Each structure stands twice: as C-alpha cells, then as structure tokens.
Amino acid sequence: MSSSRTDLGKVSAFTHEPHRSKGVSQAASEEEEQSLENADKPCLLILDSRALGRECLARTLINHGIGMDVAAFGSIDGWRDLKGNRPSVAAVLLNGGARKLGDIEKDIPTLASEFRPAPVVVLSDSDDIAQILRVLEGGAKGFIPTSVGVDVCIEAIGLAIAGGVFVPASSVVAARHLIETEKHAAPPLAGMFTIRQAEVVEALRKGKANKIIAYELNLRESTVKVHIRTIMKKLKAANRTEVACKLNEMYSGDEHT
C-alpha cells in the first residue's frame, strides 16, 4: 500500500498543470523538491496536450509496473520550463490521441534530436500504415496503437529503450500486403517516384484536385504543385491531364500482363 502512494506522488511531482488551484500547486511544488533529489534516475516523459489524458496515462503506466518515474507535460515547452534539475529522460512517449499522424510527424525530428539517445515512441488512435512508416522514418523508435493493452504499451517502451523498434503486428501485415500490392499493381513505376510522389500519383489517377491532395497528404498546396511538376517531367507530360492518361495506360497495360 505504501509503495502505491509513493508511485502516485512521483506522477504528480512532474505533471505540468498550468490551471491548478493554488493549494494543489503548492503541494505539487513540495513533492517536486523531493522528487528532484532523484533527478539522476531516468524517467519516462509523456507529452500530451490533454491534461486528463496525460495524467490518466501516467498513473496507469506506473500502476502497471513500468518501473520508473513518469513526467507528464502538455508540450515540450512545459518540460523545458521545469525549474530545478530536470531528471534524465529514458524515453519520450508522444501521445497524439486522435490527432492526425501527419501533424504528429512534424514533431518527431525535433524530439528525436533534442532527446537523443532516448527513443521517441508514438501512441496514436490512427493505424494508417503509410503514415506510420513516415513517423518511423522521421526518427520515432516505435508506434503504439491505442487498441493495444497497457502491458503491451509498457513492453513497447521497454523495447525502444533497449534499442529495438516496436511496430504492431497488424501494421506489419498491412505493410506486407501494401508491398505485394504495389509489386503487382505498378511495376512500370518501380523506382520512378519517391514515396510522396507516388502518393500524389495515386491521387492524380483518381482525379483529385490539388487542394484535396494537399489536405489528405497534409501538405501545402504549393508543395503538391511542385510534386506534380516533377511527375510531369518524369513522365514527359505537358499537363496533369496527360499525366493521368499516361498513368492509366501504364496501370492498364500492367493489368493485362
């Protein structure tokens, strides 16, 4: 029982809550002074803009035996503003919740650079395999879907700390299916386009407008136009209509082989 009370104290000591009442803030400050005495012990840093979400996640991980202090903050700025000696970070858990992975993707390089060698692991409601791959390419060392249990989450964090990369089995299966589909669907385009360009190509084949492509791929419209010009150049097409025609011919020709 006493160890449980101690664990909960560890959470509140590092949890950043700018809108607390005065009394609770004072109590947290006293706890923080005590906890910072153990600043040499690595902690898990949770970043989640939702106060209730980050507190519940922190307490749940500790109660399930994650085995380290947990620092929960609404943003990286809150962590940077922490007074006193900040504890070293064993891993960063970026909880995106229902945020688009495209938005989370932008934060990964900064976090990975600032906390290196501590791994950055993403927790998200999304399971889009293409976006998961981009998150990992951006420097994340693991992706945890919110559909898994707490024990799996803890194991995934531990794996990342040990130097591994966690990806859910469902995503691995989806990636394999995607690779096999691409091999059979578009051999003529193999090696011709980058991942982003290939995504734009697929959108062009479906006749989507630049604004729609930009929204779906989380890009600026000007960036989409640059990709389209590059695609036109590679296909030696004069306009996007000709691009669509040539692409459809390539795919159609492959279907009959």
Structure characterization notes:
With about 260 residues, the protein is an alpha/beta fold. Helices cover about 55% and strands about 10% of the residues. The chain contains twelve helices and five strands. The chain has helices spanning about 1-15, 20-35, 50-65, 75-80, 100-115, 130-135, 150-160, 170-185, 195-205, 210-215, 220-235, 240-255; strands spanning about 45, 70-75, 90-95, 120-125, 145. The protein has a five-stranded parallel beta sheet, sandwiched between helices. Helix 6 links the parallel strand 4 and strand 5 (about 145). Helix 11 packs across helix 12. Residues about 1-35 have low confidence and may be disordered.
Give a quick set of tags describing it.
single chain, 257 residues, alpha/beta, 5-stranded parallel sheet, 12 helices, disordered N terminus
| Percent strand | 5-15%
Structure class: alpha/beta
What percent of the residues sit in helical stretches (DSSP H or I)? 55-70%
Give me the strand/helix succession. HHEHEHEHEHEHHHHHH
Strand order across the largest sheet: 2-1-3-4-5
Short description:
By secondary structure, this protein is α/β, with parallel strands linked by helices. Helices cover 57% and strands 11% of the residues.
Fold topology:
Elements: H1 2-14, H2 22-35, E1 43-47, H3 51-63, E2 69-73, H4 76-80, E3 89-97, H5 101-115, E4 120-124, H6 129-137, E5 143-145, H7 150-161, H8 169-185, H9 195-205, H10 210-216, H11 221-235, H12 240-255
Parallel strand pairs: 1-2, 1-3, 3-4, 4-5
